[in-house]
Structure formats: C-alpha cells, structure tokens
Design brief:
rod-shaped; 2 domains; coiled coil; alpha+beta; Phage transcriptional regulator; 216 residues
Length: 216
C-alpha cells in the first residue's frame, strides 16, 4: 500500500526492512511489542502499537502520500486497528519487493536474449540444419525426419537474418543427431542407388557411394 501510494506520486519505493526501521526509529524509547510472522514463506516483522504511534509513523511519509494512504484506508469496508494497518503496510511492501525483483529478473533475461540475437549465438552443443547437411551429407528434409523419428533434442532460437530481420532458427543437439544417424545407417538397407529405412523411406547421403554390384 505504501509503495503503491509512493508510485502514484512519483516517489521511489521503500523496502520492507527500511519501513520497519522507520517504525522502530519513530517509536524509540516508547513501549511497543514486536513479533515475527510469515507471508508466502517470507519472514516479516510485526510491530504492535497504539493509534497515536501509528499516526506518527504514517506522518513520516510525504504530504501527498500520507493523504493517499488515509483515503485508501478509509475506503476499506472493514475497519482496521492501527496494528492491522501496519501489518498490511508491511505485507504490501513485501509483495511490492517481490514484484520488483521479478521484473528485474525478467529484464535481465530479455537483455541476455537480445545479446544472443545480436551475436547470433547458438547454444553450446547445438547446430543448425545447414551445418548438419554440409557436415554429415544428409539432406535438410531427411535430417528433420531423422530428428523427429529418433526424438533428437531440438529447439528454435532467435536469429538475425542477413537483412537484419529477427527470425526463428531451428537447431539440433549435434551429439544426439550423430548417434541417431549412426543407428539409422546400421539398420538401413541398400535399394538401387539409395538407402532405405522404415522410418526414413528412401534417402541418400552425400559422399557415400554404393559399390557396383552391391545394389539390390
């Protein structure tokens, strides 16, 4: 609630521990009780005080924020005690703090993804289909068929095309692709000038020649 009011008037948010410090500082030398509670697995401090003390704590906020807080509290259907108000403020601060951390994490992830896009980064161990075709001789279409038939790990990543347009590029885990290719070749049989496998149909591999007289 405090941070929502602060944001409304362009003021920076206050961390929950800093808010509690303000309460303790305001009530220095006075009698009050303090306990520890939990909200969503997070520890929060709860300070029990009189109405007079609660008003003094609220008075530390700026004029605009203070008025906003009072208005919002008055709009609540169920009247709250000063202690409940302070607890609500503390819980709101915890929630706001978590939201801010979540936003920061998302911003970092987006920034990292943008860097990868700019650099054209391919995840370690993965290769695109053009590379696989040039290296292992199996056509693009048949390589994709092999990946699907043998469950080879694959995914799409952002990629910057020559014209600067961001597209999606399919990449395949190379080691798993090699393993699947080897198994498939061992199970395949020669048919004329090509090879045949039940999961692949007819296919050929560039650089592999079937010896004369061995075709079926």
């Amino acid at each position: 609630m405090v941070n929502s009011a602060r944001k409304e008037y362009g003021e920076p948010p206050i961390r929950n521990n800093k808010f509690i410090e303000k309460v303790i500082d305001e009530l220095d030398g006075e009698t009050y009780t303090k306990s520890v509670g939990q909200k969503n697995g997070a520890d929060i401090e709860i300070i029990h005080m009189t109405l007079k003390q609660a008003l003094r704590v609220a008075a530390r906020e700026s004029k605009a924020v203070r008025r906003s807080l009072i208005d919002k509290l008055e709009q609540q259907s169920t009247p709250q005690s000063p202690n409940e108000i302070i607890v609500a403020m503390a819980l709101a601060n915890v929630a706001q703090e978590r939201r801010l951390k979540s936003v920061e994490t998302q911003v970092e992830q987006v920034a990292e993804e943008i860097d990868h896009i700019k650099q054209g980064t391919i995840p370690a161990g993965y290769q695109g289909y053009s590379y696989l075709q040039a290296t292992y001789g199996l056509s693009n279409a048949k390589s994709k068929q092999l990946v699907m038939a043998w469950g080879v790990p694959h995914k799409k990543i952002p990629h910057v095309a020559p014209g600067g347009q961001v597209t999606q590029m399919s990449v395949v885990l190379e080691d798993s692709f090699i393993s699947a290719l080897n198994r498939m070749i061992c199970e395949a049989e020669q048919r004329g000038t090509q090879w045949y496998h039940p999961h692949m149909g007819r296919f050929s591999i560039a650089g592999w020649d079937i010896p004369k007289g061995d075709s079926k």
